[in-house]
Amino acid sequence: MFNTHIKIVFITLLLAFGANSAKSISLLRDPDIERGLQELANPILKVAGINSKNFKIYVVNSPSLNAFVIDNNHIFIHSGLLLKLNSASQVQAVIAHEAAHIANGHITRRIATAKKTKMTSTFGALVAIAAAAGGQSEAGFGIAMGTAGSAKRILLAHSRNEESSADQSAIRYMNNATINSSAMIEVFKMFEQQVSTSLDNLEPYTRSHPLDRDRIRAIRTLVAKQSNHPINLKYQYWFSRIHAKLSSFIYDPEWTLNQLHSSNNLDLLKKAVASHRIGQAETAIRSINELLITHPNDPYFFELKGQILLENRQYSSAIKAYQTAAELEPKNALILGGYGRALLTLNNENVNKKALKVLKIARNLDNKDTNILRYLGAAFTRSGQQGEAILTVAERYALNGDVKNAILQAKRAEVMLPRGSSAWQSAQNIIYGP
Fold it and tell me: What is the pLDDT of residues 324-340, one digit of tens each?
């Protein structure tokens, strides 16, 4: 389990495991990791004809090996799979396959089927509520969704025909993006080994993505026809950085520190995170400062420094670090969210006003992060805007799939908000649907 001061924050994704037994899974939110995944995904999305502007890849907090899509704007990859993969091209193979399900219309058809089926329970209500909270007419099933078990299978399971279609498209995407498609074989060999080892304890990926020898043979044939591309050093850098950041937050920090035998940038990153997790603040800050000597314009290293300082109660220094990160990356919601949180620690009128402004921008950039909404609610409360503060509580409930409490809080907010205002309309959307 993560320490309480871990940087990777949680957002709840509600998947349907039955109307009366809904279970939530957590998303690990970190601006550095998400930037790296976007860098790996962009060439794939481009050749697949998918607009990357509003497309996000989220990391699910789970040691299992899985990746999935349940709408047309998000890919979800389990942390266990990311840490198991060995190269940028392997991660891109996973992304390419999931992107192919989107580009080939598999997800659109599945969503339509789920909407029509009588097996859905709170599906429609949750999607409408999440849409209202997110300010979108199409909710993004990836943020809040509740269905009966059979409907869940409709959304997540892929037929063999769909898998074959996705395989062909994914291999083509990789080749067109000058990425070695042989990585696809490496990934499927990993899953094939898992299938042959234990049929009783299959990883989720092999349950939702049918895998057999004919399919693997077909993939080998397709890959053999593609060009052999050199390793892209930029992609490999981002993969290594993702792995370093994620592993140092997930693995035992003492173990991480014992594995370090150099002072290269990635080892310094691991040292900063692991030292922070065991309470060695001075070592953590010294390590991040060493990184900043060679990377003086890296917003994510400044963001990490801000987090370490903030969680060690060095508030003024934390604000300076976050401010620099925000100046270098002014459109990153997670960085702005951290900056706003740091500003709130000073708790004086002028700084509270600045925090409110920063957090409003953060929320507009990413309206599905419950932590940003929590900080924004605190800023609204301090400014005396109680209606807006309660609305953020309603939005948080909505994004977590809690229809009853979302509507309850939205009704509380509605009577405090100016009739006809955008906030009042947001409350109306949660209560009555967009």
Answer: 999 999 999 999 999 99
Q: What is d(CA 263, CA 350) in angstroms, rounded to the nearest whole number?
A: 42
Same domain for 275 and 155: no
Chain segment 113-130, per-residue pLDDT in tens:
666 654 444 444 444 444
DSSP 94-150: HHHHHHHHHHTTHHHHHHHHHHH-TT-SSHHHHHHHHHHHHT-SS--TTTB----HH
Q: How many helices (H) and strands (E) does the chain have?
A: 22, 5
Question: What pLDDT was estimated at residue 114?
Answer: 60
Cβ within 8 Å of residue 409, ≥6 positions away:
390, 391, 393, 394, 397
Q: Which residue has the tokens 């620099």?
A: 324
Supply the CATH number for residue 324's domain.
Answer: 1.25.40.10
pLDDT of residue 204: 54
Q: From CA 76, how far away is CA 18, in angstroms rounded?
A: 21
Is residue 14 very low, low, confident or very high in pLDDT (cuts 50, 70, 90)?
Answer: very low
Under a CB-based contact definition with an 8 Å cutoff, are residues 299 and 322 in contact? no
- Give how many domains the chain has, as a whole number: 3
Are residues 34 and 140 located together in one domain of the fold? yes
Mark out the alpha helices in 135-200 (DSSP H runs): 149-156, 160-176, 182-197
Domain identity same for 159 and 304: no
Residues of the domain holding 172: 9-233
Q: Cα separation of 321 and 296, whole Å?
A: 12
Q: Give the Cα-Cα-Cα angle 185, 158, 74 (nearest 5 degrees).
A: 85
Q: Are residues 307 and 422 in the same domain?
A: no
pLDDT tens digits, 217-253? 889 999 999 988 999 999 999 999 999 999 999 999 9
- As a residue count, the chain comes to 434
Q: Nearest Cα to 11, choosing from 39, 33, 30?
A: 30
User: Hey, what's the torsion of the CAs at 348, 357, 137, 54, to 10 degrees?
Assistant: -120
For 245-282, write each residue's pLDDT tens digit. Answer: 999 999 999 999 999 988 899 999 999 999 999 999 99
- Dihedral-angle region of residue 433 (phi above 0 means left; psi in -120 to 50 means alpha; beta otherwise): left
Phi first, then psi, for residue 16 (nearest 5°) are -85, 120
What is the pLDDT at residue 2?
Answer: 36
